[in-house]
Amino acid sequence: MDIKVETLPNYRLAYVRQVGPYGPANIQAMEKLKKWAKAKDLLTESAILFGIPQDNPETTPTDSCRYDACIVIAKDLPIDSSVQEGELSGGEYVICRIKHTAEEIERTWQEIFPALHSRGYQIDSSHPILERYAGHMLMNDLCEICIPVQPS
């Protein structure tokens, strides 16, 4: 598994929240966000989008799981009522770039935690796990799984 460590900054976000089982509805939330972002000319090569599962489906009832489809926005960009505003607190993350297919994402979720443990990383549960999509990745069906880790 090819991983790197990166310190993410704090970001201001616009997001669309989906509540319920993770899966196809997450895609609908992301499409709604992209439609909003496209109308504002935000879906550029430099755009950064995040998919943020807010809950662990092993410990949260699936009908209560929250998923946020997010885009990084400028501090002064006004938003409207079709999206919510939030902030992502930065920190140290282990990054794993993968092909954005259901099979590859599922395989990565199964392998990433044992791989991190075997390399001595400790998960930082005070920060969310992220799926990151930068502008160029969106065009090439790639994404990055970002796991928060505590500084060593």
Overall 3D geometry? globular
Q: Give the topology string: H per helix, E per strand.
A: EEHEEEEHEHE
Order of strands, widest sheet:
1-6-8-7-3-4-2-5
The strand count comes to 8
Distance between the termini: 20 Å
- Average pLDDT for all residues: 91
Over all CA atoms, what is the radius of gyration?
A: 15 Å
Structural category is: alpha+beta
Biggest sheet details: 8 strands, antiparallel
**Share of helix among residues?**
25-40%
The tally of helices reads 3
Topology:
Elements: E1 3-8, E2 11-19, H1 24-39, E3 48-53, E4 66-72, E5 84-88, E6 91-99, H2 102-118, E7 130-134, H3 135-139, E8 142-148
Antiparallel strand pairs: 1-6, 2-4, 2-5, 3-4, 3-7, 6-8, 7-8
Structural account:
With 152 residues, the chain is of the alpha+beta class. 25% of the residues lie in helices and 36% in strands. It has three helices and eight strands. The chain has helices spanning 24-39, 102-118, 135-139, and strands spanning 3-8, 11-19, 48-53, 66-72, 84-88, 91-99, 130-134, 142-148. Strands 1-6-8-7-3-4-2-5 form an eight-stranded antiparallel beta sheet. The longest helix has 17 residues, at 102-118. It is globular and about 45 Å long. The chain starts with a strand and ends with a strand.
In short, what is this structure?
With 152 residues, the chain is of the alpha+beta class. It has three helices and eight strands; from the N terminus they run E-E-H-E-E-E-E-H-E-H-E.
Protein traits:
alpha+beta; 8-stranded antiparallel beta sheet; 3 helices; globular; 25% helix; 152 residues
